[in-house]
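go over my protein:
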Amino acid sequence: MITIIAYGSPAPQGSKKFVGMINGRGMLAESSKHVKPWREDVAAAARAAMDYGRRPKLDGPLRVRMVFTLPKPTSAPKRKRTYPMRTPDLSKLARSTEDALTTAGVWADDARVVQYDRLAKVYPGEDPEALELTGVRIEISAMESAAAQPGELFPVQAA
């Protein structure tokens, strides 16, 4: 299992916006300026967890756990558990984070994820898996297979 903890402001993978034509091709740009810094935070933490490329990329069926810790609004009750049921969209947070993990070389492709054990948005101090600051806790492990021992990760096979 690999555990990655990335601190920063979780940002969802947003829509693309048309920014013009270059050499006859339409150019699209990320509509949110917050996605790039978030991806950089996740990629840096992922590279460190992968021992800066000394661990092989994961390949084969993977199970993932992602728990995003978001800032609790000042208007929310202080002594009562509340849920982050507003933006950002959880599935879009997962998409931007998966893309960062692919860029960092954690896995061969995010299509290898076949199961999420938990995908959640929480506030600090209100969940056992919440971080003290905003960010994400990610756990990645291999699905059990007849060809592998339980918990073994599948490295990419050299062609």
In short: The first strand starts at residue 2 and ends at 7.
